[in-house]
Design a protein that fits this description.
Oligomer: single chain
Largest sheet: 8 strands, mixed
CATH superfamily of the largest domain: FAD/NAD(P)-binding domain
Number of helices: 8
CATH class of the largest domain: Alpha Beta
Order of helices and strands: EHEHHEEEEHEEEEHEEEEEHHHEEEEEE
Distance between the termini: 48 Å
Structural class: alpha+beta
Shape: globular
Length: 317
C-alpha cells in the first residue's frame, strides 16, 4: 500500500462530467485528484450534444477547439422505416442566438480534449487507475478512497469531498445498493462507426437522424455525422428481442452475432442501407446493455453524483 494522499476533492471518472466538474472545482482554488480507470483516448457512445452544452463548453474554454474539430449540429430529422416520411426539428426555431448550433463529436477525441483541459487547469489526473473502494460513511466531513493501478499497487486517498462521475458504473450507487434499473426501459444498443460514407439526407447539414423501428424491437436506429465522411450508427431494441435474435444467429452459424445483428437491423432501413453502400467499418462493434437506471441518494455532506453516475434514461427528442 502506497503512502496516503490528501486533496480537497476526489473525482471518480474522467469522462465529460468528471473532467468538467474537476476543471471548475480546480479553478475555484481546490486541490482536485481525478482517478480514471482507462487510458484516453477511448471510444464511447453519446456523440450527439444538445445546445444546452454550448455555454458550458464556452465556460470551460474549449468552444473554439470544438468549432475547429467537430461537426456542427442544427437539429434532428426523424424518418420512418421505409424512408418515405420524415420530419425535421431545428434548434434555431426556438433558440435565437449562437448556442442553437450544437456539435456531433467523436467521443475519443472529445473526452481526451476535456481531460487535457482539466489537467491544464490544475487537476491531478491519474489514468489507468481504478477505484476499488470508497468510504463515505465513516465520517460526514471526509472520504477515504482506495485506488489500484496497472502494477497492482493500491493507494489510499483522503479528501473532504468525493464527486462520483463514474458513468454507468455508478460506483457509489452500486456499492451502497442505490442503483436500480428502469424495468420499463429494458433495452440494449449495438453500434459502430463507418468511414467512406457519402453524407446525404440531412447528414451533410449536421442533422442527427433517428429512424423509428417499432414492431417487436420497440426501438430505433440512429445515424449521426461525426466527420467529413464518417458516421456513428447503431440501433436500440428490447432485450427480449435481442436475446431471441442472438439465439437465432448463433444457431445459424454466426461467429460474430453482435455485428451480424447490428447489420441485420440497420439494413431494414432503406435510408441506412443506401447510406452504407461502399463504406467501411472503422471501429469494433460496441454494445451497451441495460443502460437505463435510477440512483437514489444523489448527494450528501461529503459526496455528490454527477453525469451518468446519477442515473440515465435514453433521451427521446
Amino acid at each position: 500500500m502506497k503512502q496516503e494522499t490528501y486533496h480537497d476533492i476526489i473525482v471518480i471518472g474522467g469522462g465529460p462530467a468528471g473532467s468538467t466538474a474537476a476543471t471548475l472545482l480546480a479553478r475555484h482554488g481546490h486541490s482536485v485528484l481525478l482517478l480514471e480507470r482507462e487510458r484516453f483516448p477511448r471510444e464511447h457512445v453519446g456523440e450527439s450534444l444538445l445546445p444546452f452544452c454550448y455555454s458550458l463548453l464556452k465556460n470551460l474554454g474549449v468552444i473554439e477547439e470544438m468549432k475547429k474539430n467537430f461537426v456542427r449540429k442544427p437539429g434532428v430529422r426523424f424518418i420512418d422505416r421505409d424512408g418515405t416520411t420524415s420530419t425535421t426539428w431545428c434548434f434555431d426555431h426556438i433558440i435565437k442566438n449562437e448556442t442553437y448550433l450544437s456539435f456531433q463529436v467523436i467521443r475519443a477525441d472529445f473526452d481526451l480534449m476535456l481531460l487535457k483541459n482539466a489537467a491544464k487547469s490544475g487537476v491531478e489526473v491519474r489514468e489507468e487507475t481504478s477505484v476499488v473502494d470508497a468510504d463515505i460513511t465513516t465520517a460526514s466531513d471526509s472520504v477515504r478512497v482506495t485506488s489500484l493501478d496497472l502494477t497492482g499497487q493500491k493507494t489510499v486517498h483522503r479528501a473532504r469531498f468525493l464527486v462520483d462521475a463514474s458513468g454507468r458504473d455508478a460506483f457509489i450507487g452500486a456499492k451502497n445498493g442505490w442503483r436500480k434499473p428502469r424495468e420499463e426501459l429494458d433495452r440494449t444498443s449495438i453500434w459502430s462507426h463507418w468511414g467512406g460514407v457519402k453524407l446525404r439526407g440531412g447528414l451533410e447539414e449536421g442533422l442527427s437522424i433517428i429512424i423509428y423501428m417499432g414492431r417487436e424491437q420497440k426501438g430505433w436506429i440512429w445515424v449521426f455525422p461525426i466527420g467529413e465522411n464518417r458516421i456513428t450508427a447503431g440501433f436500440v431494441a428490447q432485450n427480449s428481442y435481442i436475446r431471441d435474435e442472438q439465439r437465432k444467429l448463433k444457431e445459424s452459424g454466426s461467429t460474430d452475432w453482435k455485428r451480424d445483428l447490428c447489420m441485420q437491423e440497420l439494413m431494414q432501413s432503406k435510408f441506412v442501407r443506401e447510406l452504407l453502400e461502399g463504406s467501411s467499418q472503422v471501429i469494433p462493434m460496441m454494445i451497451n446493455a441495460n443502460y437505463s437506471y435510477e440512483v437514489q441518494n444523489h448527494y450528501g455532506s461529503n459526496y455528490a453524483m454527477v453525469g451518468d453516475a446519477r442515473g440515465f434514461i435514453d433521451p427521446i427528442f
